[in-house]
Amino acid sequence: MISGIRCRRLGIQKLSPLSVDEYLQCLSKSQRLQDHLRVLEKNAEEISFYSRTQAIFDHTGYHGVADWAEKTSQTHEHILVTVGQVAFIGASLTYGAIFSSTRGNLGLMCYAFALFNCGFIVPTVALLLLQWASLRPREALFAAPQHWTVALNVFVYGSVAAVGAAICLLNVSLFVLHFPVGPDGQRMDAGLEFDIAPPPAGSLALVCLAVAVVATLVAGLFHYLANGWKLLVGDFVGSRRSQGHGFVDYVLA
């Protein structure tokens, strides 16, 4: 009897390594199966999303506002960032020159500062709106993308024109800089010129800021009117509804 028990124990010991290898092999297959199922589930979600938004794509060329924002960002982000950086540096230098300069046309510098402000505010707001739109729900309704694309292009090239005009005004301020000749026949230091009033330049910068604020409010209003005010509440609260597709009821044994 004792010898029989020993024989069975010896048999179990011989089979134990094989059983562990089989278990690890099964576990590896299970993990690969889970990875494969996750890929299939993701593909099923993509197919379901494209099928639900095919009508929107046929009408607008995009599968939703997020799709439009992502594609538009890819084509406009570089120029928006570049113009914004140039305008910010130009506005900083011009602002310092306005309050520390002892010569030159102060009015031209003020207008250059206002134009640099426009060239900075508009691209920054455009980038923020595109980033916000790209984070919208994928199936958010979207109408008339051509109008928004035209508006964006107007703002972008308007910003480029504003920065270019500001640089031109600074060059003009150098061109009109005059060093008078003194009684002794030597050149005297130029003084400040106030022939151009600065207040309208400040009004121009405020108008540019107001246009950016109005564009932001209009974009948000149209978005929530099309997709429901519950989405607005969800954005403020931070809630997100997720809808599963594919193998939601599948349990791996």
From TrEMBL:
The chain crosses the membrane at residues 79-99, 111-133, 154-181, 201-222. The keyword Membrane applies. Keywords: Membrane, Transmembrane, Transmembrane helix. This is Uncharacterized protein. It comes from Paxillus involutus ATCC 200175.
